[in-house]
Amino acid sequence: xxxxxxxxxxxxxxxxxASLQGEGPSIGKPVAFIRLSRCNxxxxxxxxxxxxxxxxxxxxxxxxxxxxxxxxxxxxxPEEAAAKIAVLGQNRLVITGGEPLMQCGPLADMLAYLxxxxxxxxxxxxxxxSAHVDIRVDQYNVSPKLxxxxxxxxxxxIPERLDFYASxxxxxxxxxxxxxxxxxxxxxxxxxxxxxxxxxxxxxxxTDSKTLRDRQVWLxxxxxxxxxxxxxxxxxxxxxxxxxx
Length: 245
Ligand code: SF4
Description:
With 245 residues, this protein is an alpha/beta fold. It has helices spanning 69-72, 78-86, 104-112, 131-134, 153-156, 159-166, 182-193, 209-226, 234-239, and strands at residues 4-7, 16-20, 30-35, 73-76, 92-96, 118-123, 139-142, 171-177, 200-204, 229-230.
């Protein structure tokens, strides 16, 4: 049975914690979180670059930060990870990253030790789940990356994967938006993949309260005129841009 590769918290331990979901349709729900390391994309504004931007990775990031792999990754067996989640006493689990669907094998093994927990998965939408993971998922939070992320559309917007999620009623789309022009790209994707507007969120990019609030002023107007939903990033207001929150 393969191990899971997790991100680390400030103490160097695995990033498994209880908190309120800060984004998307489940905002405010008390949940357990597990953050897996590694990502197949490289967003210039990624707020969890410690999951992928290790020594020697020169893909651009606005902070230019480089992370030591050894200090920012930790391995746990699926059974060990499940035990750490169970002890948090929550009935819902958010699996996030990085891109967690890069580790479907050990993820499915971990979920087998947590037979009763509800499962929410955060994905960038470039990867499909395995059948063993998919059968356990109650909600997908799919966040396809737009041009301002710095990823090419060939890598970030894969038609077959977007079709897969758009046609699944468990999937909600959460687009990270930094400028009003970004919403033009969202409109195109919404039409092209027929994403139900009640399952489409616009969320401001930002890692401090002021940036989020400033962007929500014009974002709320756009959501009203287009029929999209708006997501906050509640954990940023509560805890700042910190690990394990
Ligand atoms: Fe970061 Fe998510 Fe982009 Fe990966 S897809 S680089 S985890 S923001």
